[in-house]
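pls ignore typos typing on phone
flavin-adenine dinucleotide + seq
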Amino acid sequence: MNKILILFVCVLSCFIYTAESLTLPQLTAQINGKVISQSSPDFNNARFGYNYRYNRVPQVIVQPLDTASVVLALEYAQTNNLLVSVKSGGHSAIAEGVQDLRVVIDISQMKQISYDPVSNIITTQSGNKWVEVYNYTINQHQVATPGGSCPSVSVGGLTLGGGANDFSTVYGLATDNVVELEVVLANRSIVIANADSNPDLFWALRGGGHGGFGIVTKFKFNAHPVFPTYYSAWITYSWADFEDVLTFVNQFSKTMPNNVNLYFTAWRSSNATNPSVALSCFYNGPSQLGESQCGAFRNFSGIEKNTFITPTSFGVTNASYYETVKNGTDPKARSSYTSGSFLVDITKQVVNKIKTQLEKSPLTPYTFNTARLNLYWQGGEMLNKARDYNAYVHRTYPWNSVWLVSYVGQEFEETYGKWIKQTYRKFESYSSGVYQNYPDENNLDNWAEAYYMENYPRLQSIKIAYDPTNYFRFAQSIGSTSSD
Ligand SMILES: Cc1cc2nc3c(=O)[nH]c(=O)nc-3n(C[C@H](O)[C@H](O)[C@H](O)COP(=O)(O)OP(=O)(O)OC[C@H]3O[C@@H](n4cnc5c(N)ncnc54)[C@H](O)[C@@H]3O)c2cc1C
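k done
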């Protein structure tokens, strides 16, 4: 009798499952957006992001145009026993938005944007690239919110992990400017997260938003007035002056006003004997005043060599912030390794180690293969908040160091992989924490501690509350201990 009952229940549940599962043709017919199957000519393009080292093949890629279609894509995945991954701009250093055999929910085509001058709030869907946001807010409304400094990075991933650009030293991180989010949860409900509604989710998504809490479809940001043009200098120096330049940059940063932003970079093209070194100095104020700060880099007294250091070139642009970003560098998508950390200080020892490490970077026959160190200044308003203000914890040390190798040619993968690992280990003891917007799965023994530090336990309990079955799971989702 019992056996008959069990059989009956099984048949019934099978029937219910089949009746409720959404088929791919049904999804394609009902969705406002696009379904890109493996046989579609667009599939190959759509599955790659910024890092070509990852060659993953998802089950299907869905590009919704509205929130209801995001829910539908999720329904398709869940009723077919599939997991999802979420992609906005595809810039994740570890290609977390595209996973093998999953349904990729690709938000990149959700681009609605508006600005309300009364509340002074910018509302944008997750798929806009930052250059598209600036084009709208700056060119049409003379306002902006801090976002990305490269044109192709998207609102979704950048904001959920922190997000800094030249405005951030005055206005804070992108995530600090978020006042509300629209989120699709694992149970397919659409919720609002802000200071009053789901405040714990609101806290978690701002800095911990890559961790698998839900799919964020819409952001509301505080807006700030912009100047018509900004002073921005791109300055290069001789490699022989490396120690003096970096030492001076670090000294200068300690007393500069908040409206100056610095970005220091040194790189070695594979066939170059010596690396190159450059500095960007940006002034967030009337552009005619920029020289009063950034002019300091034209001629300064070197500490190492006890002589005056002058640049090999000093180019100044005065342009709108939209133009600055649009015409700025947007590194090409290639195979790459990224690894970084916040430096506790840039001591003489650290300066020397950086120089030596770049000089020891691998050589290949191709100029376009590069090994690079980027030092992003993350000071001013980015640090003027408590470490638990939201899930973004890195409020203590301002120099964010990011090592990046970018290459063409699979044969170089092992060599570059070894070099980046060695580099990470060299600077580990001089560092505290890793910026979650440059995730690293090759070097971090404990990524949760590195990205979220003391905020991690709170993130874990919020994750359990909003995704109790851990449906949104992947290698570096909150709570995972190994590759899920
Ligand atoms: C060329 C380049 C320039 C950069 N410039 C800057 C910069 O100026 N400032 C800065 O702070 N950082 C910068 N970054 C780092 C950047 O912030 C991260 O790579 C960011 O995660 C990219 O977001 P994305 O949407 O483009 O990428 P994606 O790969 O699409 O997303 C990144 C992560 O966020 C998740 N995600 C994306 N959208 C959603 C969503 N809507 N809901 C839930 N999860 C989502 C993805 O699953 C993935 O884990 C840059 C990176 C690159 C490669």
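DSSP finds 15 helices and 20 strands in the chain. Residues 111-226+451-466 form a domain with the Uridine Diphospho-n-acetylenolpyruvylglucosamine Reductase; domain 3 fold (CATH 3.30.465.10). more later
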